[in-house]
Design goal:
4-stranded mixed beta sheet; 175 residues; Ubiquitin-like (UB roll); Translation Initiation Factor IF3
Length: 175
Protein backbone atom coordinates (compact mmCIF):
# COMPACT_ATOMS: atom_id res chain seq x y z
CA UNK A 1 0.00 0.00 0.00
CA UNK A 2 1.47 3.35 -1.00
CA UNK A 3 0.60 6.68 0.52
CA UNK A 4 0.66 9.86 -1.50
CA UNK A 5 3.35 12.12 -0.08
CA UNK A 6 1.85 15.51 0.66
CA UNK A 7 3.81 18.47 -0.59
CA UNK A 8 3.35 20.93 2.27
CA UNK A 9 5.35 23.94 3.30
CA UNK A 10 5.67 24.58 7.00
CA UNK A 11 5.87 28.09 8.43
CA UNK A 12 7.07 29.05 11.88
CA UNK A 13 4.47 31.09 13.74
CA UNK A 14 4.26 33.14 16.94
CA UNK A 15 6.30 31.53 19.75
CA UNK A 16 8.09 29.08 17.39
CA UNK A 17 10.00 32.01 15.90
CA UNK A 18 13.17 32.37 17.95
CA UNK A 19 15.45 35.05 16.55
CA UNK A 20 16.69 37.95 18.68
CA UNK A 21 15.67 40.51 16.01
CA UNK A 22 13.16 40.36 13.15
CA UNK A 23 12.02 42.66 10.35
CA UNK A 24 8.27 43.12 10.83
CA UNK A 25 5.93 43.57 7.86
CA UNK A 26 2.21 44.32 8.18
CA UNK A 27 -0.72 42.58 6.39
CA UNK A 28 -0.45 44.77 3.29
CA UNK A 29 3.32 44.32 2.92
CA UNK A 30 4.23 47.67 4.50
CA UNK A 31 7.44 47.81 6.52
CA UNK A 32 7.01 48.32 10.27
CA UNK A 33 10.73 48.02 10.96
CA UNK A 34 13.38 45.94 12.74
CA UNK A 35 12.21 44.98 16.22
CA UNK A 36 13.18 42.54 18.93
CA UNK A 37 11.13 39.35 18.87
CA UNK A 38 9.44 40.30 22.17
CA UNK A 39 8.25 43.63 20.72
CA UNK A 40 6.97 41.88 17.59
CA UNK A 41 5.05 39.32 19.70
CA UNK A 42 3.58 42.15 21.75
CA UNK A 43 2.38 43.97 18.60
CA UNK A 44 0.83 40.72 17.34
CA UNK A 45 -0.98 40.17 20.63
CA UNK A 46 -2.31 43.76 20.66
CA UNK A 47 -3.65 43.52 17.12
CA UNK A 48 -5.00 39.97 17.55
CA UNK A 49 -2.95 38.66 14.60
CA UNK A 50 -0.24 36.02 14.19
CA UNK A 51 3.45 36.38 13.44
CA UNK A 52 4.37 34.27 10.40
CA UNK A 53 7.96 33.73 9.27
CA UNK A 54 8.25 34.71 5.60
CA UNK A 55 11.99 34.81 4.81
CA UNK A 56 14.08 32.94 7.39
CA UNK A 57 17.36 33.37 5.48
CA UNK A 58 17.18 37.18 5.30
CA UNK A 59 19.26 39.28 7.70
CA UNK A 60 17.33 39.90 9.97
CA UNK A 61 14.59 37.29 9.21
CA UNK A 62 11.33 38.71 7.81
CA UNK A 63 8.15 38.11 9.82
CA UNK A 64 4.64 39.10 8.70
CA UNK A 65 1.85 40.27 10.98
CA UNK A 66 -1.24 38.50 9.56
CA UNK A 67 -3.99 36.03 10.45
CA UNK A 68 -2.41 32.61 9.78
CA UNK A 69 -5.55 31.14 8.16
CA UNK A 70 -5.71 34.09 5.74
CA UNK A 71 -1.99 33.72 5.00
CA UNK A 72 -2.35 30.00 4.18
CA UNK A 73 -5.31 30.78 1.92
CA UNK A 74 -3.28 33.40 0.01
CA UNK A 75 -0.32 31.02 -0.41
CA UNK A 76 -2.60 28.24 -1.70
CA UNK A 77 -4.14 30.67 -4.19
CA UNK A 78 -0.65 31.65 -5.45
CA UNK A 79 0.30 27.99 -5.92
CA UNK A 80 -2.90 27.30 -7.88
CA UNK A 81 -2.20 30.22 -10.21
CA UNK A 82 1.37 28.99 -10.80
CA UNK A 83 0.11 25.49 -11.62
CA UNK A 84 -2.41 26.95 -14.06
CA UNK A 85 0.24 29.00 -15.82
CA UNK A 86 2.74 26.16 -16.08
CA UNK A 87 0.11 23.78 -17.44
CA UNK A 88 -0.72 26.08 -20.36
CA UNK A 89 2.70 25.90 -22.00
CA UNK A 90 3.22 22.15 -22.05
CA UNK A 91 5.20 20.47 -24.81
CA UNK A 92 3.21 17.84 -26.74
CA UNK A 93 4.92 15.49 -29.17
CA UNK A 94 3.71 14.37 -32.61
CA UNK A 95 5.70 11.44 -34.08
CA UNK A 96 5.99 10.47 -37.75
CA UNK A 97 8.23 8.66 -40.20
CA UNK A 98 9.32 10.27 -43.49
CA UNK A 99 7.11 7.95 -45.55
CA UNK A 100 3.89 8.24 -43.51
CA UNK A 101 0.51 7.34 -45.03
CA UNK A 102 -1.90 10.15 -45.98
CA UNK A 103 -4.58 9.20 -43.43
CA UNK A 104 -2.04 8.97 -40.61
CA UNK A 105 -0.56 12.31 -41.63
CA UNK A 106 -3.98 14.01 -41.53
CA UNK A 107 -4.60 12.55 -38.04
CA UNK A 108 -1.27 14.00 -36.81
CA UNK A 109 -2.11 17.42 -38.28
CA UNK A 110 -5.53 17.44 -36.54
CA UNK A 111 -3.92 16.48 -33.23
CA UNK A 112 -1.26 19.18 -33.60
CA UNK A 113 -3.96 21.79 -34.37
CA UNK A 114 -5.80 20.78 -31.19
CA UNK A 115 -2.60 21.06 -29.13
CA UNK A 116 -1.76 24.49 -30.56
CA UNK A 117 -5.27 25.90 -30.05
CA UNK A 118 -5.15 24.90 -26.35
CA UNK A 119 -1.90 26.85 -25.93
CA UNK A 120 0.59 23.97 -25.95
CA UNK A 121 3.81 23.79 -27.91
CA UNK A 122 4.16 20.94 -30.40
CA UNK A 123 7.35 18.94 -30.90
CA UNK A 124 7.43 17.32 -34.33
CA UNK A 125 9.62 14.20 -34.32
CA UNK A 126 10.34 12.52 -37.64
CA UNK A 127 12.04 9.18 -37.01
CA UNK A 128 14.15 7.61 -39.74
CA UNK A 129 14.02 3.82 -39.70
CA UNK A 130 16.81 1.65 -41.15
CA UNK A 131 18.16 3.00 -44.44
CA UNK A 132 15.67 5.88 -44.54
CA UNK A 133 18.39 8.01 -42.93
CA UNK A 134 20.10 8.18 -46.33
CA UNK A 135 17.09 10.16 -47.65
CA UNK A 136 17.05 13.07 -45.17
CA UNK A 137 15.48 15.40 -47.75
CA UNK A 138 12.17 13.48 -47.41
CA UNK A 139 12.10 14.33 -43.69
CA UNK A 140 12.70 18.01 -44.42
CA UNK A 141 9.95 17.99 -47.09
CA UNK A 142 7.52 16.40 -44.62
CA UNK A 143 8.42 18.96 -41.94
CA UNK A 144 7.88 21.83 -44.42
CA UNK A 145 4.49 20.40 -45.42
CA UNK A 146 3.51 19.97 -41.76
CA UNK A 147 4.49 23.59 -40.97
CA UNK A 148 2.55 24.82 -44.03
CA UNK A 149 -0.58 22.93 -42.84
CA UNK A 150 -0.26 24.48 -39.36
CA UNK A 151 0.64 27.98 -40.59
CA UNK A 152 -2.46 29.68 -39.14
CA UNK A 153 -2.17 27.93 -35.75
CA UNK A 154 1.54 28.18 -34.94
CA UNK A 155 5.00 29.18 -36.08
CA UNK A 156 8.31 27.31 -35.91
CA UNK A 157 10.57 28.02 -32.96
CA UNK A 158 14.28 28.20 -33.87
CA UNK A 159 15.56 25.76 -36.50
CA UNK A 160 15.11 22.04 -36.90
CA UNK A 161 17.84 19.72 -35.81
CA UNK A 162 18.90 16.11 -36.08
CA UNK A 163 19.39 14.09 -32.91
CA UNK A 164 20.63 10.67 -34.02
CA UNK A 165 17.87 9.32 -36.27
CA UNK A 166 15.32 11.96 -35.24
CA UNK A 167 14.56 15.20 -37.06
CA UNK A 168 13.06 17.57 -34.49
CA UNK A 169 11.09 20.80 -34.99
CA UNK A 170 9.29 22.72 -32.24
CA UNK A 171 6.18 24.75 -33.09
CA UNK A 172 4.78 27.43 -30.79
CA UNK A 173 1.13 28.56 -30.84
CA UNK A 174 0.19 31.92 -32.36
CA UNK A 175 -1.40 34.37 -29.94
Amino acid sequence: MSYKKQNRTYYKTNYYINYPEVRLVDENGGQIGVLSIEEARLKAKESGLDLVEIAPKAKPPVVKLIDFAKFRYQEEKKKKEERKKSKAGELKEVKMTPFIGEGDYETRVKRAKRFLTTGNKVKLSIKFLGRQITKKEFGHQLADRFLKDLEEFGQPEAGRKFLGKLLIQIITPKK
